[in-house]
Predict the structure.
Amino acid sequence: MKQYDNDTGNLNAPKSRWEEKAATAIRSRRRFAIRDYIGTLDPLHDCQEISYLVSCYEFPWDTTRSLEFALFRVFGVAKGTPLLVQTGEFLQRTQKRYDDTVLILSEILENGYDSPRGHAALVRMNKQHGRYQIPNDEYLYTLSTFIYEPSRWIDRFGWRKLSEKEKMAGFYFWTEIGRRMGIRDLPENYGDFERFNRDYEREHFRYASDNELIAKATRNLMLSWVLPRPLWRVGEPFLHALIDDHLLAAIGMKAAPLWLQRSVRASVRMRGAAVGLLPPRRKPRLLTRISTPTYPKGYAIEELGANK
Protein backbone atom coordinates (compact mmCIF):
# COMPACT_ATOMS: atom_id res chain seq x y z
CA MET A 1 0.00 0.00 0.00
CA LYS A 2 1.36 3.43 -0.92
CA GLN A 3 2.78 5.49 1.93
CA TYR A 4 2.86 9.23 2.36
CA ASP A 5 4.70 11.94 4.20
CA ASN A 6 1.74 14.21 4.59
CA ASP A 7 3.87 17.31 5.17
CA THR A 8 5.45 17.20 1.73
CA GLY A 9 3.80 14.44 -0.28
CA ASN A 10 7.16 12.64 -0.46
CA LEU A 11 7.30 8.91 0.01
CA ASN A 12 10.34 8.97 2.29
CA ALA A 13 9.35 10.51 5.60
CA PRO A 14 12.01 11.60 8.11
CA LYS A 15 12.81 9.26 10.96
CA SER A 16 11.18 9.86 14.31
CA ARG A 17 13.47 11.43 16.92
CA TRP A 18 12.67 8.40 19.09
CA GLU A 19 13.99 6.04 16.45
CA GLU A 20 17.35 7.78 16.71
CA LYS A 21 17.44 7.20 20.48
CA ALA A 22 16.26 3.60 20.23
CA ALA A 23 18.32 2.76 17.13
CA THR A 24 20.38 0.02 18.77
CA ALA A 25 17.30 -1.77 20.12
CA ILE A 26 15.45 -1.41 16.81
CA ARG A 27 18.38 -2.82 14.83
CA SER A 28 18.80 -5.74 17.21
CA ARG A 29 17.53 -9.14 16.13
CA ARG A 30 16.63 -10.02 19.74
CA ARG A 31 12.88 -10.33 20.11
CA PHE A 32 12.81 -8.50 23.44
CA ALA A 33 15.37 -5.79 22.65
CA ILE A 34 12.82 -2.97 22.45
CA ARG A 35 11.07 -4.15 25.61
CA ASP A 36 14.40 -4.17 27.44
CA TYR A 37 15.25 -0.70 26.11
CA ILE A 38 11.87 0.59 27.31
CA GLY A 39 12.80 -0.82 30.72
CA THR A 40 15.60 1.77 30.92
CA LEU A 41 13.22 4.69 30.35
CA ASP A 42 11.07 6.71 32.75
CA PRO A 43 7.33 6.13 32.17
CA LEU A 44 6.45 9.73 33.07
CA HIS A 45 9.12 11.75 31.29
CA ASP A 46 9.52 9.30 28.38
CA CYS A 47 5.84 8.44 27.95
CA GLN A 48 5.72 9.76 24.37
CA GLU A 49 8.68 7.65 23.29
CA ILE A 50 7.43 4.53 25.06
CA SER A 51 3.93 4.91 23.60
CA TYR A 52 5.42 5.32 20.13
CA LEU A 53 7.58 2.20 20.40
CA VAL A 54 4.72 0.11 21.83
CA SER A 55 2.13 1.16 19.24
CA CYS A 56 4.31 1.41 16.14
CA TYR A 57 6.91 -1.33 16.68
CA GLU A 58 5.85 -3.84 19.31
CA PHE A 59 2.06 -4.02 18.87
CA PRO A 60 0.86 -2.01 15.84
CA TRP A 61 -1.89 -4.46 14.81
CA ASP A 62 -3.10 -4.97 18.36
CA THR A 63 -3.16 -1.24 19.10
CA THR A 64 -5.26 -0.54 16.01
CA ARG A 65 -7.72 -3.36 16.72
CA SER A 66 -8.09 -2.44 20.38
CA LEU A 67 -8.85 1.20 19.59
CA GLU A 68 -11.43 0.11 17.01
CA PHE A 69 -13.23 -1.89 19.67
CA ALA A 70 -12.80 0.99 22.13
CA LEU A 71 -15.13 2.94 19.82
CA PHE A 72 -17.90 0.43 20.53
CA ARG A 73 -17.54 1.04 24.25
CA VAL A 74 -18.30 4.73 23.79
CA PHE A 75 -21.45 3.73 21.89
CA GLY A 76 -22.70 1.86 24.96
CA VAL A 77 -23.12 5.11 26.92
CA ALA A 78 -26.76 5.91 26.22
CA LYS A 79 -26.69 9.51 27.38
CA GLY A 80 -23.95 10.38 24.89
CA THR A 81 -25.17 8.78 21.68
CA PRO A 82 -28.03 11.22 20.83
CA LEU A 83 -25.40 13.87 20.03
CA LEU A 84 -23.44 11.40 17.90
CA VAL A 85 -26.59 10.63 15.92
CA GLN A 86 -27.47 14.31 15.63
CA THR A 87 -24.14 15.25 14.02
CA GLY A 88 -24.73 12.65 11.28
CA GLU A 89 -21.02 11.90 11.01
CA PHE A 90 -21.21 8.31 12.25
CA LEU A 91 -24.27 7.43 10.16
CA GLN A 92 -23.78 9.35 6.92
CA ARG A 93 -19.98 9.50 6.66
CA THR A 94 -18.92 6.49 8.67
CA GLN A 95 -15.67 5.78 6.79
CA LYS A 96 -14.60 9.43 6.88
CA ARG A 97 -15.42 9.70 10.59
CA TYR A 98 -13.35 6.59 11.24
CA ASP A 99 -10.41 7.78 9.11
CA ASP A 100 -10.45 11.25 10.68
CA THR A 101 -10.43 9.81 14.21
CA VAL A 102 -7.62 7.37 13.44
CA LEU A 103 -5.47 9.98 11.70
CA ILE A 104 -5.85 12.68 14.37
CA LEU A 105 -4.94 10.24 17.14
CA SER A 106 -2.12 8.75 15.06
CA GLU A 107 -0.63 12.17 14.36
CA ILE A 108 -0.38 12.72 18.12
CA LEU A 109 0.83 9.20 18.90
CA GLU A 110 3.39 8.97 16.10
CA ASN A 111 4.79 12.49 16.38
CA GLY A 112 4.18 13.37 20.03
CA TYR A 113 1.96 16.08 21.42
CA ASP A 114 4.91 18.52 21.64
CA SER A 115 5.71 18.26 17.92
CA PRO A 116 4.28 20.73 15.36
CA ARG A 117 2.10 18.04 13.76
CA GLY A 118 0.99 16.58 17.09
CA HIS A 119 0.09 20.04 18.36
CA ALA A 120 -1.79 20.84 15.14
CA ALA A 121 -3.78 17.59 15.47
CA LEU A 122 -4.68 18.44 19.07
CA VAL A 123 -5.83 21.91 18.03
CA ARG A 124 -7.92 20.39 15.25
CA MET A 125 -9.47 17.85 17.64
CA ASN A 126 -10.28 20.53 20.22
CA LYS A 127 -11.85 22.69 17.54
CA GLN A 128 -14.07 19.80 16.46
CA HIS A 129 -15.17 19.04 20.01
CA GLY A 130 -15.63 22.72 20.85
CA ARG A 131 -18.70 22.90 18.63
CA TYR A 132 -20.70 20.80 21.06
CA GLN A 133 -21.57 20.82 24.74
CA ILE A 134 -20.03 17.51 25.76
CA PRO A 135 -20.17 16.67 29.48
CA ASN A 136 -16.82 16.32 31.22
CA ASP A 137 -17.58 12.80 32.43
CA GLU A 138 -18.05 11.61 28.84
CA TYR A 139 -14.68 13.07 27.89
CA LEU A 140 -13.15 11.31 30.89
CA TYR A 141 -14.67 7.96 29.99
CA THR A 142 -13.64 8.16 26.32
CA LEU A 143 -10.10 9.07 27.35
CA SER A 144 -10.01 6.11 29.74
CA THR A 145 -10.81 3.70 26.91
CA PHE A 146 -7.66 4.85 25.07
CA ILE A 147 -5.62 3.88 28.13
CA TYR A 148 -7.19 0.59 29.20
CA GLU A 149 -8.56 -1.05 26.05
CA PRO A 150 -5.14 -1.39 24.34
CA SER A 151 -3.64 -2.66 27.59
CA ARG A 152 -6.40 -5.23 28.10
CA TRP A 153 -6.31 -6.36 24.47
CA ILE A 154 -2.54 -6.77 24.40
CA ASP A 155 -2.50 -8.68 27.68
CA ARG A 156 -5.13 -11.06 26.26
CA PHE A 157 -4.04 -11.37 22.63
CA GLY A 158 -0.58 -9.85 22.17
CA TRP A 159 2.65 -11.78 21.60
CA ARG A 160 3.70 -10.73 25.11
CA LYS A 161 2.09 -8.83 27.97
CA LEU A 162 2.77 -5.17 28.55
CA SER A 163 5.28 -4.29 31.23
CA GLU A 164 4.28 -2.08 34.16
CA LYS A 165 6.33 0.78 32.69
CA GLU A 166 4.52 0.46 29.34
CA LYS A 167 1.13 0.59 31.05
CA MET A 168 2.10 3.59 33.15
CA ALA A 169 3.51 5.37 30.09
CA GLY A 170 0.15 4.94 28.36
CA PHE A 171 -1.57 6.41 31.40
CA TYR A 172 0.73 9.45 31.50
CA PHE A 173 0.57 9.93 27.73
CA TRP A 174 -3.22 10.01 27.48
CA THR A 175 -3.83 11.96 30.68
CA GLU A 176 -1.48 14.67 29.40
CA ILE A 177 -3.54 14.79 26.21
CA GLY A 178 -6.62 15.05 28.43
CA ARG A 179 -5.12 18.07 30.18
CA ARG A 180 -4.40 19.70 26.84
CA MET A 181 -8.02 19.07 25.87
CA GLY A 182 -9.20 20.86 28.98
CA ILE A 183 -10.70 17.76 30.59
CA ARG A 184 -11.27 18.32 34.29
CA ASP A 185 -10.97 16.00 37.31
CA LEU A 186 -8.44 13.65 35.74
CA PRO A 187 -7.58 10.83 38.18
CA GLU A 188 -4.04 11.11 39.46
CA ASN A 189 -3.07 7.45 39.25
CA TYR A 190 -3.56 4.40 37.07
CA GLY A 191 -5.72 2.44 39.51
CA ASP A 192 -8.14 5.28 40.24
CA PHE A 193 -8.72 5.94 36.53
CA GLU A 194 -9.31 2.24 35.87
CA ARG A 195 -11.85 2.12 38.70
CA PHE A 196 -13.58 5.13 37.16
CA ASN A 197 -13.65 3.30 33.82
CA ARG A 198 -15.26 0.17 35.31
CA ASP A 199 -17.72 2.09 37.50
CA TYR A 200 -18.77 4.33 34.62
CA GLU A 201 -19.60 1.35 32.45
CA ARG A 202 -21.63 -0.28 35.20
CA GLU A 203 -23.63 2.90 35.69
CA HIS A 204 -24.07 4.15 32.13
CA PHE A 205 -24.07 1.11 29.84
CA ARG A 206 -27.72 0.58 28.92
CA TYR A 207 -29.59 -0.02 25.70
CA ALA A 208 -30.83 2.88 23.58
CA SER A 209 -31.85 2.93 19.93
CA ASP A 210 -29.21 5.60 19.18
CA ASN A 211 -26.53 3.28 20.57
CA GLU A 212 -27.66 0.57 18.18
CA LEU A 213 -27.79 2.86 15.14
CA ILE A 214 -24.22 4.07 15.55
CA ALA A 215 -22.78 0.72 16.61
CA LYS A 216 -24.31 -1.09 13.65
CA ALA A 217 -23.05 1.54 11.20
CA THR A 218 -19.53 1.12 12.61
CA ARG A 219 -19.78 -2.68 12.69
CA ASN A 220 -20.90 -2.73 9.05
CA LEU A 221 -18.00 -0.49 8.11
CA MET A 222 -15.56 -2.92 9.72
CA LEU A 223 -17.20 -5.88 8.00
CA SER A 224 -17.00 -4.06 4.64
CA TRP A 225 -13.21 -4.07 4.88
CA VAL A 226 -13.08 -7.87 4.63
CA LEU A 227 -16.41 -9.10 3.23
CA PRO A 228 -18.82 -8.22 0.41
CA ARG A 229 -22.16 -6.87 1.65
CA PRO A 230 -24.14 -10.12 1.12
CA LEU A 231 -21.83 -11.85 3.62
CA TRP A 232 -22.05 -9.27 6.40
CA ARG A 233 -24.63 -11.32 8.27
CA VAL A 234 -22.24 -14.26 8.21
CA GLY A 235 -19.42 -12.14 9.58
CA GLU A 236 -21.39 -10.44 12.36
CA PRO A 237 -21.07 -13.23 14.98
CA PHE A 238 -17.30 -13.39 14.48
CA LEU A 239 -16.98 -9.70 15.31
CA HIS A 240 -19.47 -9.97 18.20
CA ALA A 241 -17.34 -12.79 19.63
CA LEU A 242 -14.71 -10.20 20.61
CA ILE A 243 -17.19 -7.96 22.49
CA ASP A 244 -18.37 -8.65 26.04
CA ASP A 245 -22.04 -9.38 26.74
CA HIS A 246 -22.61 -6.24 28.84
CA LEU A 247 -21.60 -3.99 25.95
CA LEU A 248 -23.43 -6.09 23.35
CA ALA A 249 -26.67 -5.66 25.31
CA ALA A 250 -26.12 -1.89 25.48
CA ILE A 251 -25.63 -1.58 21.72
CA GLY A 252 -28.40 -3.98 20.76
CA MET A 253 -26.28 -6.74 19.30
CA LYS A 254 -26.67 -10.46 19.78
CA ALA A 255 -23.94 -12.37 21.58
CA ALA A 256 -22.08 -14.99 19.55
CA PRO A 257 -22.48 -18.64 20.60
CA LEU A 258 -20.07 -19.62 23.34
CA TRP A 259 -18.23 -22.07 21.09
CA LEU A 260 -17.65 -19.33 18.53
CA GLN A 261 -16.45 -16.87 21.17
CA ARG A 262 -13.90 -19.42 22.35
CA SER A 263 -12.83 -20.25 18.81
CA VAL A 264 -12.42 -16.62 17.68
CA ARG A 265 -10.58 -15.56 20.82
CA ALA A 266 -8.30 -18.59 20.63
CA SER A 267 -7.52 -17.74 16.99
CA VAL A 268 -6.54 -14.18 17.91
CA ARG A 269 -4.35 -15.49 20.73
CA MET A 270 -2.70 -17.92 18.30
CA ARG A 271 -2.00 -15.02 15.96
CA GLY A 272 -0.27 -13.22 18.81
CA ALA A 273 1.80 -16.28 19.67
CA ALA A 274 2.84 -16.61 16.02
CA VAL A 275 3.96 -12.97 15.91
CA GLY A 276 6.17 -13.68 18.90
CA LEU A 277 8.03 -16.30 16.84
CA LEU A 278 8.76 -13.85 14.01
CA PRO A 279 11.81 -11.56 13.85
CA PRO A 280 11.20 -8.17 15.50
CA ARG A 281 9.83 -5.34 13.40
CA ARG A 282 12.61 -3.18 11.92
CA LYS A 283 10.40 -0.38 10.60
CA PRO A 284 7.45 1.33 12.30
CA ARG A 285 3.91 0.89 11.07
CA LEU A 286 2.70 4.47 10.76
CA LEU A 287 -0.98 4.93 10.01
CA THR A 288 -0.39 8.55 8.99
CA ARG A 289 1.74 7.35 6.08
CA ILE A 290 -0.75 4.84 4.69
CA SER A 291 -3.40 5.63 2.09
CA THR A 292 -6.97 5.59 3.42
CA PRO A 293 -10.30 5.33 1.55
CA THR A 294 -11.11 8.94 2.46
CA TYR A 295 -7.67 10.35 1.63
CA PRO A 296 -6.12 8.10 -1.06
CA LYS A 297 -3.59 10.81 -2.03
CA GLY A 298 -2.73 11.99 1.47
CA TYR A 299 -4.25 14.71 3.62
CA ALA A 300 -3.66 17.93 5.49
CA ILE A 301 -4.46 18.05 9.21
CA GLU A 302 -6.90 20.92 8.68
CA GLU A 303 -8.97 18.61 6.43
CA LEU A 304 -9.59 16.13 9.21
CA GLY A 305 -13.01 16.17 10.87
CA ALA A 306 -16.31 17.69 9.86
CA ASN A 307 -16.13 20.77 7.68
CA LYS A 308 -19.29 22.43 8.97
Observations:
- Residues 17-296 form one domain.
- Confidence is low (pLDDT under 50) at residues 1-14.
